[in-house]
Amino acid sequence: MTILTPSGLETDDYGYSGWQAIHNKNADKLRRVYRMLQGLLDIDTDNLRDGAILTWDATAQKWRCKTYG
User: Fold this and answer.
1) Bridge partners, residue 56, by sequence
2) How many helices (H) and strands (E) does the chain have?
3) How many domains does the chain have?
4) What is the per-residue DSSP string for 16-49?
5) For the segment 44-62, what is each residue's pLDDT rounded down to a tens digit?
6) 65: Cβ–Cβ under 8 A, 6 or more apart, which residues?
7) How far is CA 48 from the centre of its chain?
8) Domain range enclosing 18
């Protein structure tokens, strides 16, 4: 068994006793990362510039770049 870096996924040979548990554990890790990344898709970067701050727009249900001042 080998641990891949930086992902932390485990490797093993197909047919090795317990390979299904390793496969399922890796799939769970990948699903958790995917769910975290999905949260980044609600960002509107149209007004992105230096000094902009991400601000939640409840109407659009997105994070928007906003410059104050």
Assistant:
1) 63
2) 1, 5
3) 1
4) STTHHHHHHHHHHHHHHHHHHHHGGGGEE-TT--
5) 777 778 888 888 889 988 8
6) 44, 45, 46, 47, 48, 49, 52, 53, 54, 55
7) 21
8) 2-66
